[in-house]
Amino acid sequence: MKKYLYFLSCLLLSVFFSACSKYLDVDLENQMTLDEVFNKRKTTEQYLAQVYGYLPLEHDMFYSEGGNVPLSDEALFSWVSWVPWLNFANGTWGVTTTDYATWEHNYKGINQATVFINNVDKNVELSESVKSTMKAEARFLRAYFYYLLLRRYGPVFVWGDRAADDKIDPKTVDRMPLQANVDFILSEFDKATAVLPLEITDQAWYGRITKGAVMAAKAELLLYMARPLFNGAKLYVGLKNKDSEFLFPQIADANKWELAAKAAKDVIDLNLYSLYVDTKEKDPFRHAIKSYMGIYFDKWNSEVIWGRWSDDGFNYNVRTAPPKVVTIGYGGYAPSLKLVDAYPMASSGRYPVIGYGANGQPVIDEKSGYKEAGFTDNYVHPLDNFAAFKAHNSCVGRDARFYASILASGMYWTNPKPQPRQVTFFEGGTSSYTKTGDCVKSGYLWRRMSDPTNDIEAGNWGQFAWPYYRLAEIYLNYAEACNEKPNRNEAEALKYVNLVRQRSGLNNLEVAYPEVLGDKEMLRTLLRKERMVELAFEGHRYLDLRTWMTAEQEMNEPYYTRNVAATNYESSWERTKDVFPGKRSFQPKHYFFPIQQKQLSEMIHITQNYGW
Predict the structure, then answer these.
(1) Most buried by CB count within 10 Å: which residue of 168, 284, 402, 495?
(2) 576 strand-pairing partners
(3) Does some domain include residue 589?
């Protein structure tokens, strides 16, 4: 399946319309006219590429568009100043904060998509069927930009099909009710689905929208709408717009889970996608590791439903490389200790840590087989078997995804050229802790999206592919909805979460936890743990905690790390809150972003979100 946004790098060569100071206007001053743009095939294709260009760069985690990962509790990026996520993590942000503010950006994308929809039929060099497909792509993109606004800000103002030159007085604008937002987005999704192809076969156009991409977006939208944040949350009961319409549902509707389940199953029933499985490795455990890694490294594989392609591997991979061990390594993209704790044990299939004490020490499931203390001498990494080392017992016997994702102290750098290099995170280690400069502070680095075949010492930083949607997510969406819907289907929920676990070599959930059978709440907890692990660093965790409305429990805590400030390897494995300053702070008002001051000044009657 060829589904990535490859064509953007080929077509987005010139942008005919500058970013407008008012995002509900089109500025054609000193530009080609609309008639001139849409008269030719090439310029029409370039305009559509520009609309695609408003999609978020979710793999760029350093800046606002990819900000979901550092904002969540799955990550603890190493930098403690001059990075945009710190104010959000400690709660010191508000209506004048511009980081992660995507309101104007997405409305510009909405506007440009509308311009395309309203003008593409003028083209005389494209067939009617091609124009119909391109219009459907723009229709989906416009609705998707609304969806991105919805999940960040809550319900917004929907411009709909109004022409780009149909001026809207910002002084009259207010947000529309949630259901009006959802109805419009779903209607646009369905219109696009009816026209778009199942597959893209022309290599020059890999990545353009397909039926499956739209259906996956629909499934995710309906999943979020069924979850507590959008489904009767008490925080938003009574919140009205200027026309006295309730912006949010006033009571929960459990039937929304039925809609979410059906939408996810519709994607599955296309039978176009399959979980990626490595076809070369014979060793069962290494096969499990490589099957999970291959989702990213085998770039045109059958699991990805829709994704984005980038030729710039440097900016991501340099931040996952350990300082001092490699020539150029910033060492900043680090998993949190909580994420590291989350990976199941390979033998039992159980998640080892079931909670934390007041001092940050883990409460361990004794049936899991996990050991928090001690070391194993002469341990050989199950994939990077370059040399034996003294491994902390917490790193022994874990799920295959642990070894695909986590670079822990004591392990060797993923590429053995020019020679194997051990990585140790403590003061005086090979990637030594220092109070200033680039260094690893959590005790771990993230390695999952960094291809170990890249020889970065030779300047080979590789290319990058980012899946917006992949089949494992759809399986987990479906499992969650099946567990929650009024006509609960436990068998289906277990079937599809087990398909995800089986790829990693784990036993079935009901084998690991026989007591889960018949226990809806326990299955909910285990599904959320599985989702945290399987979709780690893909931008879902922050959205999950918010839409589940569990962020207040999960993201108000000190930054616990391994004690990388210790002066020896053994002591560096102790847990501490003294290495990384401060703590996370998540307040009820943070479930939605505020409407920023710039928009409040333009739209004087717009209704602000709760708490802002």
Answers:
(1) 402
(2) 561
(3) no
3-state SS, one letter per residue, for 414-464: CCCCCCCCECCCCCCCCCCCCCCCCCCCCCEEECCCCCCCCCHHHCCCCCE
* Cα atoms in the Cβ-side hemisphere of radius 13 Å centred on 89: 26
CATH of the domain at 21: 1.25.40.890
- Euclidean distance between CA atoms 102 and 264, whole angstroms: 27
Q: Do the domain assignments include residue 386?
A: no
Asked, for residue 570, whether it belongs to a domain, the answer is no
Question: Is 140 contained in some domain?
Answer: yes
598 and 606 in contact (C-beta within 8 Å)? no
Q: How confident is the model at residue 5 (pLDDT cuts 50, 70, 90)?
A: very low
pLDDT at 522 over 80: yes
SS3 content of the chain, % helix, strand, coil (to 5): 40, 10, 50
- Closest residue by Cα to residue 308 from 200, 193, 463: 463
| High-pLDDT (> 90) share of the chain, % | 84
User: Measured at the alpha carbon of residue 409, what is the angle toward residues 453 and 345, in degrees to the nearest 5?
Assistant: 85
Question: Amino acid identity of 208?
Answer: R
* 572 token code pair: 């560096």
Give the span between the Cα atoms of 504 and 556, in whole angstroms: 31
* Domain region containing 176: 6-56+102-209
Counting the structural domains of the chain, the total is 1
Neighbouring residues of 81: CB distance < 8 A, sequence distance ≥ 6: none
Handedness of CA 534, 535, 537, 541 (dihedral sign): negative
Please give the structure tokens belonging to residue 251.
């009571």
pTM over cut 0.90: yes
